[in-house]
Amino acid sequence: MHRISTLWKANTIAFISSFCVMVIELIAARLLAPHIGVSLYTWTSIIGIILAGIALGNYLGGKIADRYPSPLLLATMFFVGAALTITILPAIRIVTSDDWFGELPIIWNFMFKTSCIFLLPAIVLSMVSPMVIKLTLADLGKTGGVVGTIYACSTAGAILGTFMTGFYFILWFGTNMIVWLVAIALFLTGVLAWFVWKVPGRWSLSVKNILAWTVMIEMVLASLVLFQFRESWQENYTRESNYFAIRIFDGENNIKVLALDHLV
Prior knowledge:
Blueprint: H1 7-36, H2 40-67, H3 71-86, H4 88-95, H5 106-126, H6 128-136, H7 143-173, H8 175-197, H9 204-235, E1 237-240, E2 245-250, E3 256-260
Antiparallel strand pairs: 1-2, 2-3
């Protein structure tokens, strides 16, 4: 079993994963706003689905950590999380169309759409903390202190991610750019996790293969996202403020339409 040697490394990893989860949760409402609006139903669906993803991720992460405790698998979780984060952008356009769950009552409509877009990233990123704890616990006599410290740092990351995204990131970068930045941060954290805690020997080839496949998959996903949004970038005006997602687009009879979130 490969153990993370110092607690600060574990704290950093847990901090980053929770930070990214909360960034995704905060931008979820803004990403959905132009398509389904921002209402109590929207926020309830987002918060509930993200919490469900955290619960499932913690459970599955614990099971996996007991069977396969490895820095390689920890790094892979970040790589997969980065890939799933990139898919949020095309998934928004696809899943929010009326063809998806359009016949369902509004509550179930919102819940299913939110699940299709955000549940998997939340699950994968929430698998990190159980793996980190497993790799850190070399002395069972210090279990309480280690687990408490890791979860405290994880919660601190979630708090900072919430405040920074709500108060600064959306205004500074916009939601689309934030998605890209989160994906890049997760990918780099996965690389860092491996190179900081790698164990020489049999895992070297596996890591190279995983890195190669991850880079190729994420390049393909990035190309698809860029192609899909190319026309909207050229034709529409979009700007995000602290209050609304502002869009101007061509309506019927050559009329310019101003939309604030889902309101025209």
